[in-house]
Known about the structure:
By secondary structure, the chain is an alpha/beta fold. It contains 12 helices and 9 strands. It has helices at about 10-20, 35-40, 50-55, 65-75, 100-110, 125-130, 140-150, 165-195, 200-205, 215, 225-245, 250-260, and strands at about 1-5, 25-30, 45, 60, 90, 115, 120, 135, 155-160. The strands form 2 sheets. A 6-stranded parallel beta sheet has the order 3-2-1-4-5-6, with helices on both faces. It has a 3-stranded mixed beta sheet with strand order 7-8-9. Helix 8 (about 165-195) packs across helix 12. It is globular, with a radius of gyration of 20 Å.
Amino acid sequence: xxxxxxxxxxxxxxxxxxxxxxxxxxxxxxxxxxxxxxxxxxxxxxxxxxxxxxxxxxxxxxxxxxxxxxxxxxxxxxxxxxxxxxxxxxxxxxxxxxxxxxxxxxxxxxxxxxxxxxxxxxxxxxxxxxxxxxxxxxxxxxxxxxxxxxxxxxxxxxxxxxxxxxxxxxxxxxxxxxxxxxxxxxxxxxxxxxxxxxxxxxxxxxxxxxxxxxxxxxxxxxxxxxxxxxxxxxxxxxxxxxxxxxxxxxxxxxxxxxxxxxxx
Length: 264
């Protein structure tokens, strides 16, 4: 399969490495030289632009940081859609605004290109350990074509519906995670301050109605500064999208305010 991958950050790099090591014909691009060298060392072809990646690929995957980067990569003069042939698929792995996904999908229609929004969960460790989860919005046929690529990094691949449903599911997922972190932080802080041993608290949560994977793993997972920025950004997207839908999300607002304290 001729595949492309753009955006070789802490997560995207390992997703791309897994695909190259699995034997897929992979073309990659990033603005930084270091990850490009790592991908070249495992057999990937390095392109000089996003457009060149698209020209050499049947499926182009994009894993960049935010909406501005995504629009530049997908819609720029030297971007992905400028190089895609009819019948190609563009996969958006980034967690961005649903409106941005819709904008790119609409721009791709006249070219006969399908856009799929396939955000992922698992972060860097999930990509390294091949335990990623995929939330795939798009056609069933498109997902069938992409599945061999996704399976190189994880077996949990859920078809959420048409294009746009993947990112909506991911935003709900991120909101639930962050409010779980807030609940675990406050509960564990209360219990420990009251003199209860941390491992005892974890057992209580595991065996009781407050069951929570976040609480059970409390302080066993290291949160980097990058993780905190990502959570903050994703909560901002949740709040904006909630406003569009006429929803009040006070838990999201509080979790965003507390994120640096909770995961420091």
